[in-house]
Description:
By secondary structure, the protein is an alpha/beta fold. It has two domains: 304 residues, 4-Layer Sandwich (Purple Acid Phosphatase, chain A, domain 2); 203 residues, Alpha-Beta Complex (5'-nucleotidase,  domain 2), CATH 3.90.780.10. The chain is built from 16 helices and 27 strands. The strands form seven sheets. A six-stranded mixed beta sheet has the order 4-3-2-1-14-15, with helices on one face. Strands 7-8-10-11-13-12 form a six-stranded mixed beta sheet, covered by helices on one side. Strands 22-18-25-21-26 form a five-stranded mixed beta sheet. Strand 14 and strand 15 form a beta hairpin. Helix 11 crosses helix 16. The longest helix has 18 residues. It is globular, with a radius of gyration of 25 Å.
Amino acid sequence: xxxxxxxxxxxxxxxxxxxxxxxxxxxxxxxxxxxxxxxxxxxxxxxxxxxxxxxxxxxxxxxxxxxxxxxxxxxxxxxxxxxxxxxxxxxxxxxxxxxxxxxxxxxxxxxxxxxxxxxxxxxxxxxxxxxxxxxxxxxxxxxxxxxxxxxxxxxxxxxxxxxxxxxxxxxxxxxxxxxxxxxxxxxxxxxxxxxxxxxxxxxxxxxxxxxxxxxxxxxxxxxxxxxxxxxxxxxxxxxxxxxxxxxxxxxxxxxxxxxxxxxxxxxxxxxxxxxxxxxxxxxxxxxxxxxxxxxxxxxxxxxxxxxxxxxxxxxxxxxxxxxxxxxxxxxxxxxxxxxxxxxxxxxxxxxxxxxxxxxxxxxxxxxxxxxxxxxxxxxxxxxxxxxxxxxxxxxxxxxxxxxxxxxxxxxxxxxxxxxxxxxxxxxxxxxxxxxxxxxxxxxxxxxxxxxxxxxxxxxxxxxxxxxxxxxxxxxxxxxxxxxxxxxxxxxxxxxxxxxxxxxxxxxxxxxxxx
Length: 514
């Protein structure tokens, strides 16, 4: 009887927690002040009953984030962002890895916020490179937060930016770490912080064995019992769902979207070891009054980058639009082709053909003097350049596949250095007819060509080389003959500055037959 009274007296009382997730901000901290208002209000009213999570992909996406990544004179803006509220836990995104180990090591070393990711493995030790999980103790309850990252990062980010790291599948890592956390911590709530989208199947049996699913959130929530909440990201689609897993338990699944447009919010009441969801929602924040203290924190970073981003680069003689790529050759893409071919040849590497795509839809640049900031609109990612060895038939199959990839536009590749036609009335597989090389010399399906493209594509991003060309994903890197040690946007800016004035006419190396 005395023991029963003792246990009852110390049983945690009914407590309501609010979990809030931001994700895929991509350096848009100048737009985050509205979100900051919501977070501050919740922090003021809830105290430590607010659990604030960030799900990664902060280190790429804006001029001033890029500038901050390479400015050692002050703490990185992402570290300051995480510490401002502060966040309780932060996850790791693929674009954080893309910033390079030197950058993300520094940023995660600067922040006081624990950074979790269980399936990034240090090859030197065989153990997780980051903390796999953390346990928060709030109001007498234990809340475990497990971090995981899509392993498809290895198909997008060159090894030079992630040396000594390997990436396990989300499915296997989740299964392993749920058991470890249950046995070691016995938490009252287990929260997944997955930088992985809602749902996708492996592309092939080989992919399933090596990488699993790129977007594994739904599968894990349904098939690996133990999670009470799973916050996801990566696919830039805000989401609120409650699923039933294989044990018949409910799992709340939320995605905060991207670019500081809103927050994912889950309200969970704990009583006698059981949970009840009273609210699972996405909070759109554009109508909020900006938080002035957050703005004051960001402003010095905006000021410091101004001289860099306003530096004049080259004259653009005509207006250009990214969506013009759908209509045929256009300057938006053809300037990239010209740059890629010139840069590689200056490095003393043979380049016969260029492959490129517009990297965003609805983008426009006005005629006039372009600044560095304009090139972040034109080329928003930190990809490098690569040259691959491909047969003529492999090039043709690549282009066949590309013309099915109109959404998203960054997979809609075209070629330069050769002359070809695309006839949409023909059956799939017969639409692309390559007539000759651009200089009029014959093109042969059996000949081997050097093809320059960005490293995202050269590593299998978009599946052009796997599903389109037919290469096994594990063999793709054997075709790479050269890779740049600098990001393509920096090379693009230098190339344009050397020219002074960009061409006013497209290359016209291909055309639609309609």
